Amino acid sequence: MSKAKMRASYRCSECGWETAKWVGRCGECQAWGSVAEAAAATLRTSAAPVSTPAVPIGQVSAEESGFRTSGVPELDRVLGGGLVPGAAILLAGEPGVGKSTLLLEVAAQTARHRHRTLYVTGEESASQVRMRADRTGSVQDELFLAAETDLGAVLTHIEQVRPTLLVVDSIQTIGASGLEGVPGGVTQVKEVAAALIRVAKTRNITTVIVGHVTKDGSIAGPRVLEHLVDVVLHFEGDRNSRFRMVRAMKNRFGPVDEVGCFDLSADGIEAVVDPTGLFVEHHERAVPGTCVAVSMEGRRPLLAEVQALVTSSPLERPRRTTSGLDASRVHLVLAVLQQHCRIHFHSSDVFASTVGGARLTEPATDLALAVALASASRGTAPPRGVVAMGEIGLAGELRRVRDLPQRLAEAARLGFRVAVVPSNGAPKTADGPIDGMAVLDVPDVASALTLLRLNRAEA
């Protein structure tokens, strides 16, 4: 028999961090006043009967865990092939980004293929979900809807409906009766998640759980929630844009470097197979202060236009404004251009942004940013049909970028004919040069600007 010895401990109500003595500030999430006393048990467990005997791994059947399409190809790409029976998936994102709309579409597509689906909503009433389903065309006979906030009632619905796919929106609204804390607290979230995952594993039910995020973008609740589930997905997007991206942060069944692109509108959510056109402006003539970069979103190359504006400043401290770019990388590129290319920005306001709300944080986009800044400062447009990629070091050198063949192939597919890349970029492509594209390798940023006729020294 098991014996439990009670001891005093203190637990953070924000992240679940535990300590033996009380402290005013959590040592994990650094929150003040969130540590309170909680009873903990130290268990000593003896041997017990097993549910199923251990067998050689070669004798374990893998057929029951095969992929099944979700009906949304972009989501299947992120998951590594589709939904896996018994898998627990956590989908997190900011309010209003479209999590419920995406999952309602997945539930409807699953029900359309004659797989019974149960959608449990704790944030909306059943009639509200039905209104959205009518608007997006998601009403299906095999799609069952329940509005519940009690864990026991949710488990009863699962027992009665026996679904193939379970969607819980969201775990912060479901509470377990008889357990301390309010729904959304550390104890409640851990217990509710453990119960749902236990049912998912024993009944081979694919379970998708919606999670809230904090103001800094991390998943709310205890970190153990991310350890319990099999897949962690982040749903990202700018409220001023219809473009949305699903990114895998953890995936036990596939790669974690894949993203899916979607278009969110009043009629629902649709997959965007080729998102590059959303971030590249088509100019009729060459325009100063512009350059196209090629970044990697997961394993997908994505072309995005970088724009820059440099004007004389009346201020003692000129402005540095960025949108869609990492401000620290912009400052680094400005310093390198001033030190190694004799392009002075100390008396100028500098504005740098991307087109279409794209977010470029990869260092490989440094060279495109440098070209745009130099072009804006000189008032000279770079040649048309040019893409630039390369990370800039503090000494002005260009460092190699990963997945160069895939980037070049995507740029060539979209009609670009010249690519400026680092000279140590290894083979240009896997099978040889790309037809119709000139690949120009340069050792440093000064050579790249000289090649594009943007590095004339000031008098």
Automatic annotation (TrEMBL):
Domain RecA family profile: 64-213
Positions of the UniProt region annotated as Lon-protease-like: 349-459
CDD domains: RadA_SMS_N
Organism from which the protein derives: Nocardioides gansuensis
Residue span of motif RadA KNRFG motif: 250-254
GO BP terms, alphabetized: recombinational repair
Key words of the record: ATP-binding, DNA damage, DNA repair, DNA-binding, Hydrolase, Metal-binding, Nucleotide-binding, Stress response, Zinc, Zinc-finger
InterPro entries cross-referenced by the UniProt entry: AAA+_ATPase, DNA_repair_RadA, P-loop_NTPase, RecA_ATP-bd, Ribosomal_Su5_D2-typ_SF, Ribsml_uS5_D2-typ_fold_subgr, Rubredoxin_2
SUPFAM superfamilies: P-loop containing nucleoside triphosphate hydrolases, Ribosomal protein S5 domain 2-like
PANTHER family: DNA REPAIR PROTEIN RADA (PTHR32472), DNA REPAIR PROTEIN RADA-LIKE PROTEIN (PTHR32472:SF10)
GO cellular component, one term: cytosol
The protein's name: DNA repair protein RadA
Membrane-spanning ranges: none
Source superkingdom: Bacteria
Family to which the UniProt record says this protein belongs: Belongs to the RecA family. RadA subfamily.
Function according to Swiss-Prot or TrEMBL: Plays a role in repairing double-strand DNA breaks, probably involving stabilizing or processing branched DNA or blocked replication forks.
GO MF terms, alphabetically ordered: ATP binding; ATP-dependent DNA damage sensor activity; damaged DNA binding; hydrolase activity; zinc ion binding
Free-text note on domains in this protein's UniProt record: The middle region has homology to RecA with ATPase motifs including the RadA KNRFG motif, while the C-terminus is homologous to Lon protease.
Binding site for ATP: 93-100
